[in-house]
Amino acid sequence: MARCIPDRLHPSQAERSESDFLQRLRHELPDDFIIIPCLEIPRQNGIFDSETDFVILHPRGRLILEVKGGTILCERGRWKRVRQGKAEEITPPFFQARDNAYEIRDYLVKVFGKEAPEARMMFNQAVVFPDVDFMEDTIEITDDRLVDRGELARVGLVDIVNRLLNDGENRYLKRFPEKPLPTPLSVGQLEKIAHKLRPELRLTANLSSEEVDLELIRLSASQLHVLEMLEQNKRLRVTGGPGSGKTLMAVETCRRELEINPTAKIGLICFNRFLGAFLADVVAREKMTQVQAGSFYSHCDGLIGNRGKGNEIDSSYFVQRVREALQVAKKLSPDEKYDLLVVDEGQDFRDDGEMLELMDVLLKGGLARGRWRWFEDLDQV
Predict the structure, then answer these.
(1) Which of 197, 232, 258 finishes a domain?
(2) Contacts (Cβ under 8 Å, ≥6 apart) of 26
(3) Residue 313's CB: how many other CB atoms inside 10 A?
(4) Hey, which of 158, 228, 234, 283 has its CA 20 to 30 A from 135?
């Protein structure tokens, strides 16, 4: 699966055709591709007056794709798109693709230097019409830089992207016959380009323990890499010290899972009741109704009811609650169990066999075969 920064589009950023195309790109392209959707292109005076739909990075080169969904018209040289029965004028898509491709090249030359491999990489551009078959023959448009509905139906995106990369390489060799193709870039060099085009930012609610005030925070590249790994593995254990963003990533894991599978039943569990109450509040505020969030004992209460003795310092009482909850959990049908279990501050559970057994029973497939994400701080073990 290709890496995408970000992995989903805000509803205000893209139409259905672009969102659908992004999902195809993510799932069909292998993991040596990086996809950057909806990249705003700065012009003079720093004004954002253009946007490229997709930048695709690969060791062989860079592709700029403009996606134009719906019915497309070109009348007397003016391009239009039909929305709800009304035609609105749009920037000529092939001009837009070419212009954005060169703007990005110029920007990379500026930040890396003209002779840097990151700036010298081969690039190409194309226009994608996912909803129409483009049959017209015109000097302004070359089939090599066009992808239409018919090709998308017949050919996988890996083959289409490779065709565009091949076309870019052929054009490069024709333009510079005395030069060899640029050396394929390393993973590190691609990461540098991705970081310059779109710094590894994620805007999300700040999980400071007092309240959710939608303060914006920045996730590091390593944290975003962890989130990408979460999507590619059924089971993953993540370790980090205080302040490393484990709780933030635990909540973001739930968001991402619901984006992919809105009907998934998710258990978000921690040991501390104050953190559990906070997680439950975040989930409620964000209307993630498929997520059952809270402390471990709040999950027990959900199975056996609150016995009203939570403030008593009586270890035997809590042990008994776990055992009773376990008996109830063993009678649950598969549909009543979690599709995904997300555990925050997991170090608090590692030495308690009965707590682990309850989690095992609550998860479809159990801890051995089910899907879980385990966040913990080894310094507190």
Answers:
(1) 197
(2) 1, 2, 4, 7, 35
(3) 6
(4) 158
Q: What predicted TM-score, i.e. pTM, was given to this entire model?
A: 0.54
Range of the domain at 149: 3-197
How crowded is residue 228: how many other Cβ atoms within 10 Å of its Cβ?
16
Taking all residues of the chain, what is their mean pLDDT, rounded to a whole number?
82
Tokens standing for 347? Answer: 């170090």
Instruction: Tell how strand 86-89 and strand 78-83 pair up.
Output: antiparallel
Mean pLDDT of all residues in 142-156: 90
Residues 232 and 90 in one domain: no
What's residue 15's pLDDT?
Answer: 64
Residue 160 inside a domain? The answer is yes
Condensed to tens digits (0 to 9), the pLDDT of residues 310-369 reads 444 566 778 888 999 999 999 999 999 999 999 998 988 877 888 999 999 999 999 988
Cα 17 to its chain centre, rounded Å, is 17
Question: Can you give the pLDDT at residue 135?
Answer: 77
Taking CA atoms, 53 is separated from 68, 148, 152, 158, in Å, by: 9, 16, 17, 18
108 with 226, same domain? Answer: no
Q: Which residue has the tokens 């075969």?
A: 369
340, 268 contact by CB (below 8 A):
no
Q: Which of these three, 138, 163, 197, is where a domain ends?
A: 197
- The number of distinct structural domains making up the chain is 2
> 232 and 253 in contact (C-beta within 8 Å)?
no
Judge whether 215 lies within some domain: no
